[in-house]
RNA sequence: GCCACCUUAGCUCAGUUGGUAGAGCACCUCAUUCGUAACGAGGAGGUCGCCGGUUCGAUCCCGGCAGGUGGCUCCA
C-alpha cells in the first residue's frame, strides 16, 4: 500500500467516524475531518452532549457497521450556491460558514487544511465555482477526496482520544470535540504502533523522573516549577558543564546578571508590548519602581555591552551564562519538564561586525554539532527565513546577506537542513536545530538567531576604523536550549540509562558480609574510587545479594561490584556492567582494583567519544 | 486561558450502589550473613487533594478551588 492509498483510507475513516457519530447523535454539527500522522480526526459539535472515552466502543461498533455495509464512496459536484443550500438544509452551520467564505474569497481564511478539505477546485483568486462532495450510504460530506473505493476497504482503526479543539483553530471561536483515531493497513501495523506508544510511555520522563528520583513538583511551590533532587542536579550540571566547556573553548566570557529588572528595560527592548502578559511582576515595598522577573537575558547582556565604548578591534564580544528565566505560561500549557515556568538556558550573545557573521555563526554551528554528536543524537537544521510579509524589521540587505550566510554555513558544515520561509523571528533569521531521539521522534533543541533589532533599540554601537559609529549585529545562541526541556528529551532518549559521565551514580558497591575484613576492603575501595573522581555508593543493607543486584538494575547504575570474602582474598574484581554499556564494549572481565578504577575514570573522561570506551 | 478526564499510604493501585478504608513495593523492628534481578516474620504509616453545600451521616452526590493528564490556543 502506498502513501496515497493510506491517506485515502484514513480520510475515508474520518468520514465514517462522522457518519457513525451522526447515527448516534442526529443533531451533530460537523467541522472538518482531516488526515494527520498515523490517523485522522473529526471536529464535532454536539452542543451539551460530551463524548467520553466510554463512548468509544459504541462509536467504533457503529463505524464497523458502516465498514461492513461496504458502501461505495461516490463523488458529486454542486455549484457553490447549491452547496450553501445543502448546508442550510442539512443544518450544518460550520460547513455553511466555510462555503460562504469560499464563495466570497475563493479560499477560506483559516488554515490551509480547510482548503484541502473542502474540495476547492480553483486555486486562483476568483470566487469558487463548484465544490466537490462525497457520499457513502446515508452520509454526504463536503470534501475534495480522495477516498477509498468503498467503506469496506479502509484497513483497521482505533479511536484514541477525544479533546477540545477550537473551530478553525482560533481561541475566541466555539470549542468543538475532536475525535482522534489511528488507522493502518492491517492489524499487525496497528499493533506495532500501539506497542511503540507503550514503549514511549515507558520512557516518559515524568515516570522516569519519579522512578530515578531526578526531580519533583510541589503544589506549594507551584505548577511548572520543577525542583531538582541531588541526582537530577548532577545530570543538569554535567550537561551544562559540557556546554560551558564548548563556550569557553570558543572564546566566550561568562557573565552574571540578576534575575529581576525594572520593567523599563522591556519597554525599551520592545518585549513589554509583545510579551507583557507573560511577565511575572515583582513589587518593591520601598520604591515606586515596577520590577519583573527576567523572561530573557539579552536586554541585561546588552547593558553590559553598552556600559563602555567599544572599538571595532574589541569585536566580536561574546558573553555566555547558564541562568534561569521566568515566564508566566498559561497553566494549561505546562507539562512535566517539557514546558515549565522557570526555564534555565545556556544562553549566549555575540556582538559582531557584519564581516564577522560568517565566522561567528560557523563556530556556533560547530559547537552545536559537537554536543549533539557526543550525546548520540542526529541533528537536522531548519533554516528559518523571512517571507514577503511586512512584519520583519531591520535592513533588508542585511537580511539577504545573513540568509545567504546561513545557507552557505549549512552546506559547509554538511548540515542536514531544510529552509522554512516565514519561520524567521521578526528581528532576524535563525537556525533551529532538531534532534532525533532513540525512538525516532524529533525535538527542537538548539537555536542560533541573528538579531538586527535589539542593537538598534538599545543604541548599541562600536567605533570603526574611520572613527564612525557603527551598529553591531547580535547573535543569540542556546546549545541545550531550555535545560528543563532538554532534560525531558534526553531522559526519554536514553530511557534513563545515562552514559557513564552523566550518571548520577556511576559505581555501586554491594557489600555481602559485614565482617571487618570485608567492611575494611569496601571502605578502601570507595575512597580510592572517590579519589579517581567516581560517583560511588555502597549498599550495605541487610538484604540478599540478589535483592541488591535487582535494586542496582532498577536504578540503572552503570557498574556494580559485589564485594564479599572472595574478592577480599583474590583482590580481583568482576564488575557487573549495565547491558547497554556491555554492548558498547565495557566487557565483563576480572580486573585488579586500581586497574578497574582507572578504566572507569577513563570512561568518564571519554564522554565526547564513544570509541574510547 | 479553553474543553474533557483524573486526584485513596512515600510509590503503583484496589474498594465503598452514602454508614470514616485495603494490597503489593518502599520504610522501621526482629531473624538471617547471604554470591549476581525480589529470603522470612512482625510493625508503623491515611482529615480518601483542599474548601463549601445536600444528608441523621459524605472518601462516595453537588459546587468552587488547587494539582495532574490528553488536546486546543500560545511559545521572545
Compact description:
By secondary structure, the chain is an alpha+beta fold.
Explain what this protein looks like in three dimensions.
It is built from 20 helices and 29 strands. The chain is an alpha+beta fold and 613 residues long. The strands form eight sheets. It has an eight-stranded mixed sheet with strand order 11-15-16-23-20-19-17-18. Strands 1, 2, 3, 7 and 8 form a five-stranded antiparallel sheet that branches. A hairpin with a 6-residue loop joins strand 13 and strand 14.
Task: Looking at this protein, list some descriptive labels.
613 residues, alpha+beta, eight-stranded mixed beta sheet, five-stranded antiparallel beta sheet, 20 helices, 29 strands, globular, RNA-binding
Write the layout of secondary structure elements.
Layout: H1 3-24, E1 29-30, E2 35-36, E3 39-45, H2 56-69, E4 74-79, H3 80-89, H4 93-105, H5 112-118, E5 130-136, E6 139-142, E7 156-166, E8 175-184, H6 187-202, H7 205-211, E9 215-216, E10 227-228, H8 230-249, E11 253-254, E12 260-262, H9 264-269, H10 271-275, E13 281-283, E14 290-293, H11 298-306, E15 317-326, E16 342-352, H12 357-374, E17 379-385, H13 396-412, E18 417-421, E19 430-436, E20 442-451, H14 454-457, E21 462-463, E22 469-470, E23 473-482, H15 483-494, E24 507-511, H16 516-531, E25 536-539, H17 545-554, E26 559-563, H18 565-570, E27 572-573, E28 576-577, H19 579-584, E29 591-592, H20 593-605
Parallel strand pairs: 11-15, 17-18, 24-25, 24-26
Antiparallel strand pairs: 1-3, 2-3, 3-8, 4-5, 5-6, 7-8, 9-10, 12-14, 13-14, 15-16, 16-23, 17-19, 19-20, 20-23, 21-22, 26-28, 27-29
Helix pairs in contact: 1-2, 3-4, 7-15, 12-13
The structure holds one RNA strand of 76 nucleotides.
Amino acid at each position: 500500500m502506498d502513501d496515497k492509498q493510506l491517506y485515502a483510507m484514513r480520510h475515508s475513516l474520518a468520514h465514517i467516524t462522522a457518519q457513525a457519530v451522526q447515527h448516534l447523535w442526529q443533531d451533530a454539527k460537523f467541522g472538518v475531518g482531516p488526515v494527520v500522522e498515523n490517523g485522522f480526526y473529526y471536529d464535532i459539535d454536539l452542543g451539551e452532549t460530551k463524548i467520553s472515552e466510554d463512548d468509544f466502543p459504541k462509536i467504533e461498533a457503529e463505524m464497523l457497521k458502516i465498514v461492513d455495509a461496504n458502501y461505495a464512496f461516490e463523488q458529486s459536484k454542486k455549484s457553490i450556491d447549491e452547496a450553501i443550500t445543502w448546508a442550510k438544509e442539512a443544518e450544518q452551520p460550520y460547513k455553511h460558514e466555510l462555503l460562504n467564505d469560499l464563495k466570497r474569497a475563493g479560499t477560506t481564511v483559516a488554515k490551509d487544511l480547510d482548503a484541502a478539505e473542502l474540495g476547492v477546485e480553483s486555486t486562483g483568486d476568483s470566487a469558487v465555482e463548484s465544490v466537490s462532495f462525497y457520499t457513502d450510504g446515508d452520509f454526504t460530506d463536503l470534501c475534495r477526496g480522495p477516498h477509498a473505493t468503498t467503506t469496506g476497504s479502509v484497513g483497521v482503526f482505533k479511536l484514541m482520544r477525544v479533546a477540545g479543539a477550537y473551530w478553525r483553530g482560533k481561541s475566541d471561536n466555539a470549542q468543538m470535540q475532536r475525535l482522534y483515531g489511528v488507522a493502518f493497513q492491517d492489524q499487525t501495523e496497528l499493533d506495532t504502533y500501539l506497542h511503540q506508544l507503550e514503549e514511549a510511555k515507558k520512557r516518559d520522563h515524568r515516570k522516569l523522573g519519579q522512578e530515578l528520583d531526578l526531580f519533583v513538583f510541589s503544589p506549594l511551590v507551584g505548577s511548572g516549577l520543577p525542583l531538582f533532587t541531588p541526582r537530577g542536579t548532577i545530570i543538569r550540571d554535567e550537561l551544562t558543564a559540557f556546554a560551558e566547556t564548548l563556550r569557553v573553548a570558543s572564546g566566550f566570557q561568562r557573565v552574571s546578571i540578576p534575575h529581576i529588572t525594572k520593567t523599563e528595560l522591556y519597554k525599551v527592548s520592545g518585549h513589554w508590548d509583545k510579551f507583557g502578559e507573560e511577565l511575572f511582576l515583582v513589587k518593591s515595598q520601598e520604591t515606586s519602581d515596577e520590577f519583573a522577573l527576567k523572561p530573557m537575558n539579552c536586554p541585561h547582556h546588552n547593558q553590559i555591552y553598552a556600559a563602555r565604548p567599544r572599538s571595532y578591534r574589541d569585536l566580536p564580544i561574546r558573553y555566555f551564562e547558564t541562568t534561569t528565566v521566568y515566564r508566566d505560561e498559561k497553566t494549561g500549557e505546562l507539562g512535566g519538564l517539557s514546558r515549565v515556568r522557570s526555564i534555565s538556558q545556556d544562553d549566549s550573545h555575540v556582538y559582531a561586525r557584519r564581516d564577522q557573521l560568517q565566522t561567528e555563526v560557523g563556530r556556533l554551528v560547530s559547537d552545536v554539532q559537537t554536543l549533539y554528536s557526543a550525546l548520540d543524537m542526529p541533528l537536522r537544521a531548519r533554516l528559518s527565513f523571512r517571507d514577503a510579509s511586512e512584519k520583519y524589521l531591520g535592513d533588508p540587505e542585511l537580511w539577504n546577506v545573513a540568509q545567504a550566510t546561513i545557507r552557505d554555513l549549512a552546506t559547509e558544515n554538511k548540515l542536514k537542513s531544510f529552509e522554512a520561509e516565514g519561520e524567521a523571528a521578526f528581528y532576524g533569521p535563525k537556525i533551529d536545530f532538531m534532534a532525533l531521539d532513540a525512538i525516532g521522534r524529533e525535538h527542537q533543541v538548539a537555536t542560533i538567531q541573528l538579531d538586527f533589532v535589539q542593537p538598534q533599540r538599545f543604541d548599541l554601537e562600536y567605533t570603526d576604523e574611520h572613527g564612525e559609529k557603527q551598529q553591531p549585529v547580535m547573535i543569540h545562541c542556546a546549545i541545550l536550549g531550555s535545560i528543563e526541556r532538554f532534560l525531558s528529551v534526553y531522559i526519554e532518549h536514553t530511557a534513563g540509562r545515562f552514559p557513564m559521565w552523566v550518571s548520577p551514580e556511576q559505581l555501586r558497591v554491594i557489600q555481602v558480609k559485614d565482617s571487618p575484613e570485608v567492611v575494611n576492603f569496601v571502605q578502601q575501595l570507595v575512597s580510592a574510587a572517590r579519589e579517581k573522581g567516581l560517583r560511588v555508593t555502597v549498599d550495605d543493607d541487610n538484604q540478599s545479594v540478589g535483592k541488591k543486584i535487582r535494586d542496582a538494575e532498577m536504578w540503572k547504575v552503570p557498574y556494580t561490584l559485589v564485594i564479599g570474602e572472595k574478592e577480599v582474598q583474590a583482590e580481583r574484581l568482576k564488575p557487573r556492567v549495565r547491558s547497554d554499556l556491555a554492548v558498547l564494549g565495557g566487557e565483563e572481565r576480572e580486573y585488579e582494583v586500581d586497574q578497574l578504577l582507572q578504566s572507569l575514570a577513563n570512561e568518564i573522561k571519554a564522554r565526547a567519544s564513544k570509541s574510547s570506551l
